[in-house]
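Q: I'm teaching a short session on how sequence maps to structure, and I want students to see two examples side by side rather than one. Could you give me a first protein with its sequence written out and its structure tokens following it? Keep the formatting plain so it prints cleanly on a handout.
A: Of course. Example one:
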Amino acid sequence: MVSGFLGSVNVAASRGWGDNLTTAGALLLAAVTSPLAIPLFYFIAMLLRRTGARLGGVAPREHVQAAIAWSTVPVSTWSLLVLLLQLALYGGEVFSKSIPTIEAANPALPTTLMLVGFGVGTWGTVIGLHCLGEVHRFSAWKALGASLSAALVVVGAMFVPLFVVAVILAILG
């Protein structure tokens, strides 16, 4: 749930919700919309359980859900720290499209935050693969294969219908 809230906060910041809302309003709207991430969480867990099972994994759905939840801890913690730092330094400008204070600030801070964020994201990915491998009782490398297979299923489900429509339109003219 924390991960969903922080994802909503990132959407609020990137889409400029603060241009029409107060900072409190943007945070409240992010809190209200964060439960939308719950069905996505269950879908990802179902997909990783099934692709893992195809590769010989044995994890029940609840264990895959726990693995996913634990893998979000590093990135969620980092995102929360960055959000608090940005709110302390820049206030409501974090949620605005017009960011003169942020743009005028020393570029060393955003660069450092980005580099550390990349490291934390990598760490979270490694933790996620090890967690998924642990619950399926196979290696992190096999967990990577299950994750890539799940991604291919999603991409295929999105692009196959588009391809079919494109072919039909090409035939019709």
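Q: Perfect. Now a second example for contrast.
A: Example two:
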Amino acid sequence: MTQFTGKQRMNTGFTIVELLVVIVVIGILAAITIVVFSGIRQRAVIATLQSDLNNGVTQLKSTQATTGSYPGDTSGVKGSSGTTYQYTVDNTTNPQIFCLTATNSGTSYFVDQNGTTQPGTCPGQNITWIIASTLASKYWNQVLMSGDGTKFMANTAADLTATALYRSTDSGSTWSNGNRPVVDKDMRSPALITADGSKVITAGFGNGSTSTYVSTDFGTSWTLSNAGGQITKFAASTTGSVMYGSEYFDSDYGGGGVRKSTDGGITWAYVITMPYAGNTIDAVATSSDGAKVVAAPDSPAPLVYSNNSGSTWSSLAGSGSRSWTDVAMSSDGTKMAAIGNGTIYTSGDSGATWIARTGPGTRSAIAMSSDGTKLISSNTANAQYIYTSNDSGVSWTPMSGLGTGFWLRSSISNDGLKYVVTNVASGNGVVYIGTYH
């Protein structure tokens, strides 16, 4: 008979250390299994989304081939269980365009008319729009926004009463009447709210003259400036210490040009050293410090540029000789976007070279975030869409959910997370506020 001592029996069990090692190993194996399973499941979701989008492209293009245009919604697009769609379309452009986003289990992929699926959502579909419902429907000819997206101001050409100026200091949630600086002029000219919201510029035409006013209390009181001519657009440094105005006409010089102010918009001097002085200048844009400025001539000519606060100017030959209607600039002055002969042109090297962006079709106005990555463009022709871009103008998405209309100038916040636009139709208008998320 074999006998075991007590000491031998104790050595046959597991020690605490051995048990802990086993538990740790089991935990590691379980974690590896979970990671592997999650990876397999995620790849399956992506494959499903890509398949749904490829089928969606086939269905959308089949409709286009039959009817001559892409469908207005995704009711005819079939997807897998759990897949939801977002869809934007513009059949007014040549070629017609669309963008389709498919989402399943928190993962999104998108595809456009070119047929290449990509991760993420269609540019522009991550903007939520609401109507500024507290504003009565009027002919809103301009809606402005401060750089931080908290202050808004709207004016109307149809109502010339003293209080026909509306303002908001809570990102458009509530609105109150401001005091219109003059009641005998049509405040039709685009105005300006400085990036920090400290100053407001507005201009009006009427009774054979033009007046420009400055407010430092957000539209409660106004000071008349000495700016002459017909200023069509203003641009300013962040605080408004340096301002520029593009001038449609000045009787002293027999044409237009650019005026500059260094005292917050009270006094203005004509920049007569620029190469197109005497010609009509439709728009102007500047960097956050006011040192760099670009001006857009209306008559066929290249854009003009200054990097020393307007002291000297040079032609941006790379922009080409075109009739320009609007221009925008990033805060550091390296990125620009402009509308020439109705086409969007962008530059990422301070205006040395330019690329035509034909996707959005004919455009008339453009605005840009401080870093130059997000843009919004409108067209004052009827039956047009608002377009947005979040890649410095490389690709564009129509805001088809807003419908077509007569869109006037739009504004974008410095960080590109807030937008405001106005659609005017049959003498009435609707103000839309967009939030990027």
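Q: What should students look for in example two?
A: Point them to this: Helices lie at 6-10, 16-67. Also worth mentioning: Residues 16-67 form the longest helix (52 residues).
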